[in-house]
């Protein structure tokens, strides 16, 4: 038999296996749904926004001062997640979380050419995420004058459980989409393997292609004929 697989044969096998294929989809998507809604632990995120600006005595902000603030933003991002800040945050939270836990939970981001820093905290408990984010911002604002000898950080927004927490993990829509893709791939693999291992001859054309002989006639399967 030829090594190539006829597309019509694949379609015929797929049609014959349609119930098994449907079962594959149901099992994969159902398993993913059970995992996402009943097994996976949701992770929540809370955030605080900080503004890096000049001190009050600098009323006329010049371009070079703005550029200096933008450079400070990068430095402040590193300071926020430094052991000095996280150790104090740990103390404020009464040692409920280790420094390693806080380092994993706290992240800092800022948009390009922006003087606004966003401190994000993630945890499986939304209240904990809010507490960590607020304490990190509070400690940083208090300590930065001692570290940099300037008082140019303002807390724009505090983290709140009701309006700023959001579930960031797992991404249910994305995971369900991936499960559908996996279902398609598994179905294609099963159909391909079935077609490659199927040595039966289904049509006259396959018989002619296989043996190079002309088909003179066919014999009906009388077992399938209903006798009136």
Q: Can you describe this structure?
A:
The protein has 2 domains: 7-39 and 172-211, no CATH class; 43-169, EIF_2_alpha (Alpha-Beta Plaits). The chain has 8 helices and 5 strands. With 228 residues, the chain is α+β, with helices and mostly antiparallel strands. Strands 1, 2, 3, 4 and 5 form a 5-stranded antiparallel sheet that branches. Helix 1 (7-16) crosses helix 7 (172-197), helix 2 runs antiparallel to helix 7 (172-197) and helix 4 packs across helix 6. The protein is 54% helix and 14% strand. It has helices spanning 7-16, 18-39, 63-80, 83-92, 99-105, 126-148, 172-197, 204-211; strands at residues 43-52, 106-109, 116-123, 153-157, 166-169. The longest helix is centred in the last third of the chain and has 26 residues, at 172-197.
Uncertain regions: pLDDT < 50 for 5+ in a row? none
Q: From the alpha carbons, calculate the radius of gyration and give it in angstroms.
A: 32 Å
What sequence of helices (H) and strands (E) makes up the elements?
HHEHHHEEHEEHH
CATH class of the largest domain: Alpha Beta
Secondary structure: number of strands: 5
Major beta sheet, specifics? Answer: 5 strands, antiparallel
What is the CATH architecture term of the largest domain? 2-Layer Sandwich
Distance between the terminal alpha carbons, to the nearest Å? 40 Å
Which structural class fits the helix and strand makeup? Answer: alpha+beta
Let me know the CATH homologous superfamily of the largest domain: EIF_2_alpha
Whole-number count of domains: 2
Q: What value does the average pLDDT take? A: 81
Beta content comes to: 5-15%
> Which range best describes the helical content: under 10%, 10-25%, 25-40%, 40-55%, 55-70% or over 70%?
40-55%
Tally of separate helices: 8
Question: What general form does the structure show?
Answer: elongated
Named CATH topology of the largest domain: Alpha-Beta Plaits
Pfam families: GNVR (PF13807), Wzz (PF02706)
Domain Tyrosine-protein kinase G-rich: 125-196
InterPro entries: Bact_polysacc_biosynth/exp, GNVR, LPS_length_determ_N
Subcellular location: Cell membrane
């Amino acid at each position: 038999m030829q090594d190539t697989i006829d597309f019509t044969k694949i379609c015929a096998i797929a049609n014959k296996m349609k119930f098994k294929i449907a079962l594959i989809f149901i099992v994969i998507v159902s398993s993913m749904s059970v995992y996402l809604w009943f097994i996976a632990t949701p992770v929540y995120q809370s955030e605080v926004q900080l503004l890096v600006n000049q001190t009050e005595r600098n009323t006329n902000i010049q371009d070079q001062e703005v550029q200096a603030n933008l450079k400070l933003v990068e430095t402040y991002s590193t300071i926020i997640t430094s052991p000095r800040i996280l150790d104090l945050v740990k103390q404020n939270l009464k040692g409920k979380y280790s420094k390693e836990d806080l380092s994993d939970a706290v992240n800092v981001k800022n948009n390009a050419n922006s003087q606004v820093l966003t401190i994000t905290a993630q945890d499986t408990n939304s209240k904990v995420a809010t507490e960590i984010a607020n304490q990190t911002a509070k400690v940083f604002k208090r300590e930065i004058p001692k570290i940099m000898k300037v008082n140019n950080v303002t807390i724009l927004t505090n983290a709140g459980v009701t309006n700023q927490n959001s579930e960031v993990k797992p991404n249910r829509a994305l995971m369900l989409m991936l499960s559908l893709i996996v279902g398609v791939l598994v179905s294609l693999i099963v159909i391909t393997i079935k077609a490659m291992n199927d040595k039966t001859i289904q049509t006259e054309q396959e018989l002619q292609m296989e043996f190079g002989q002309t088909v003179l006639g066919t014999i009906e399967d009388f077992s399938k004929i209903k006798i009136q």
